[in-house]
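F.,

This is the one I mentioned.
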């Protein structure tokens, strides 16, 4: 084989880059649809039924169960190899029996302020438990953030495993919750202040979407996220107006998170929300300085922001509306654009609309729109990109499709 005598630098160092289009590789990505049916056992009734059946128990995942119930049935079984017990309750005899027959046990006795093995999402009331007695620092949410930030355990392999197990459980619970629902995401900046017209507009957007039958999902934090969750939660515009007025007295979560969340929790406590599940938040302890808002009826909170971001956009399968924001919001726009560009998990179905709200913001202040248009040229995604000025225009784009896909479920509110 004859080697070129010319150095690489002589050949390419002064050649303009990017003039020749490269052939792209199209791919299909495996998208999690939740736990495998029958493998992960999360309730005592299912576990008791399995113990009474003749089916083998090998390779089950037992999550947060009290294994002391039906103990005689369990102690009579020997087909327990490759079972993984994630937390829950068991005594010494049951633990010894399980280990003798090849079961792996992750202990429940740990210092985590949250249960890593929980099989369901959080509520705001759970995350803010302890607020009235000890202030925000004493809440479950704040203690989980401190556990995440603790430098003494940051690189502890066991703690890392617990956080990963927690996030996997959150992902499964989230996927189960949104199954069969029409889901529309709303993104926007955390700095949007209560009491402003833009905050009210974001809340009206959430309300319009929920009234059209969508489950409104946000990043679960303050600002535009809280506003959209608030609007989705409110049963009508009169309730929304009252809530906006009540919240305006504490415009920001800094410097006092407790003062910021109390009026929101008070509004939730009045029971004036709409029927069923309308409002969902997906925040992260990675940005733990941004507290979860109280208007997300269910909260899937993650330690990993990468997992959280991916799931937030993957589950916005019926549309994504993006209000003005800064770097984090821009990142979400292009993560969604990437999914649309490569048609990730979408090759054989309609692409969801991506709607940017605020022409001046997205064309002048942060000129994202021209780049989106360039990416979309001669691709299917070009038909689903929209730039509008008002939340009514944004809602009209998304609800046009939402109303034709009546959600199968609206419970668990």
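My design for it:
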């Amino acid at each position: 084989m004859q080697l070129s005598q010319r150095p690489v630098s002589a050949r390419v160092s002064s050649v303009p880059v990017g003039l020749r289009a490269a052939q792209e590789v199209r791919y299909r990505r495996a998208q999690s649809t939740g736990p495998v049916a029958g493998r992960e056992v999360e309730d005592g009734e299912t576990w008791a039924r399995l113990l009474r059946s003749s089916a083998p128990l090998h390779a089950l995942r037992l999550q947060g169960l009290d294994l002391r119930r039906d103990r005689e049935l369990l102690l009579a079984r020997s087909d327990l190899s490759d079972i993984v017990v994630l937390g829950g309750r068991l005594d010494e005899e049951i633990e010894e029996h399980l280990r003798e027959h090849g079961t792996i046990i992750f202990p429940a006795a740990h210092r985590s302020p949250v249960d890593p093995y929980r099989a369901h999402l959080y509520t705001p009331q759970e995350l803010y438990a302890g607020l009235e007695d000890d202030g925000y620092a004493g809440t479950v949410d704040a203690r989980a953030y401190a556990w995440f930030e603790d430098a003494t355990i940051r690189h502890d392999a066991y703690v890392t495993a617990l956080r990963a197990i927690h996030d996997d459980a959150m992902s499964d619970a989230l996927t189960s919750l949104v199954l069969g629902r029409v889901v529309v995401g709303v993104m926007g900046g955390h700095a949007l202040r209560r009491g402003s017209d833009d905050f009210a507009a974001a809340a009206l957007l959430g309300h319009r979407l929920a009234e059209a039958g969508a489950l409104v999902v946000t990043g679960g934090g303050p600002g535009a996220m809280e506003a959209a969750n608030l609007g989705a939660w409110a049963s009508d515009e009169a309730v929304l107006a009252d809530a906006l007025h009540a919240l305006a007295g504490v415009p920001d979560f800094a410097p006092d998170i407790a003062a910021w969340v109390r009026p929101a929790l008070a509004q939730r406590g009045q029971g004036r929300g709409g029927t069923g599940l309308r409002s969902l938040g997906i925040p992260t302890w990675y940005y733990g300085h941004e507290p979860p808002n109280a208007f997300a009826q269910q909260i899937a909170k993650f330690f990993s922001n990468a997992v959280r971001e991916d799931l937030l956009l993957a589950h916005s399968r019926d549309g994504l509306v993006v209000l003005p924001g800064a770097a984090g919001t821009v990142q979400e726009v292009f993560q969604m654009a990437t999914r649309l560009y490569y048609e990730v998990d979408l090759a054989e179905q309609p692409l969801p609309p991506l709607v940017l709200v605020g022409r001046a913001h997205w064309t002048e202040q942060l000129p994202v729109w021209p780049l989106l248009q360039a990416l979309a040229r001669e691709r299917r995604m070009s038909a689903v990109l929209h730039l509008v000025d008002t939340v009514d225009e944004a809602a009209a784009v998304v609800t046009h499709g939402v109303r034709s896909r009546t959600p199968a479920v609206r419970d668990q509110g």
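The mean pLDDT is 91.

Talk soon.
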